[in-house]
Amino acid sequence: GISHRFPNPRKRLDLLQKWIKVIGSDQFNELPSNDIHYKKRICSIHFSGDCYSPGTKVLNFNAVPSLNLSNSVVVLNNWTVLRKIMCCETTTNSMHEHDDVVKKSNLKKKFQNNGMLNKIGIRHSKLLTPKFKSLYGTEKMAKFKECLKAAEKFSDKYLDSKIIGCMSSAAAIFIKLQLRETKNSPKGRRFTLEEKLLCLSLYKQSTKSYQLLSKLFILLARKTLSTLLYQIPISTGLDKKCKTLKEKEKYCVVLFDEVSLEPQLQYDDNVGCIVGFEDNGLDRTQRITNNFKQPISYTFCESSTKRYDLANQITNVLKAVHLSGLKVVDTICDQEYNDTFYEIDCGVERIKVVHLYDSPHLLKGIRNNLLSKNLMFTINGHQREACWKDIVDLYVLDSVVQDVKMLP
């Protein structure tokens, strides 16, 4: 059988002492730990199958001999063999000491061969006939495949526990995808739902970056991602959510805006309807206490929405938002709106809502008007006039001193 070296005392002194205790400390004559490590060996018949790494003949990190320990011990300078004496009525525990230098040529090492050749009484495969030599090679290859399969299984478990287990969930999904699908052809690759969602999140961040990543790594095709998006049910109307929020987080504003789209009719296979007819507007809510936006309604309109249709839509949206548990403070849009304050009847109570203009668009509108017109205003009973040239002069005056500036 195979012999194993004693543990290194510099690294595993505790394990070496455990081996000595199990075998018997009286057999080593108080030898130094380094001498035991370099000069002594123990046979593999004293270790159980659990002591070996899967698919190998290497001992585990914490392997300890536990079998056939009531044996005779033969100790040589560079070799120690513990062998079991079979068919004997008595056992002897004796230590045979030799000189420090023993020629390896004088040592007759006998190994027990438990393979197929030993069963038929042949010591070497060269003595086999061609037919039996072929059968022997096939059997040997099958055993090697079993060992290789066990080693691959062990490596996968080690990869999951030691490497992938320390990663984030997204990184673990990405690494497993690359390792699993690298050996498959492009048409033979299969993806889980988690992998599809990961690729979809990368695609939504930047389509150009996703195109580059698709050349470097294994990712879903853009056509597959488009098919995945079509499976998400999206339709016009109100979406009732946000019921389990803190009291402070329920205060929100309703924003509505119009986006120009190209007129077109399209049949949606998933829903079974034609999309593109006039349906009027887009509304969404935004919390005041934190940065959170929730789309709640969208509709299609022809050119700009009529005033009465817009008032009716806003009323329905405010009622639905109020019934969902949110508390609307005001409404905001970037267009002219006649009503700056209004009340909405929500059945049991009436809510008061203030309308505000979108401040970035308000500043942009003032700038565009000043470029072509002058602004007439009154301060303390005196009528004044402002123009765009006043702002330019102020900027030039502030830019005279380079290190000191009051304007942005």
TrEMBL record:
Residue ranges of every copy of the THAP-type domain listed in the record: 1-68
Keyword Nucleotide-binding belongs to the record: no
InterPro entries in UniProt: THAP_Znf (IPR006612), TNP-like_RNaseH_N (IPR048365)
Keywords attached to this entry: DNA-binding, Metal-binding, Zinc, Zinc-finger
Gene Ontology terms, MF aspect: DNA binding; zinc ion binding
Stated name of the protein: THAP-type domain-containing protein
Annotated source species: Aphis glycines (Soybean aphid)
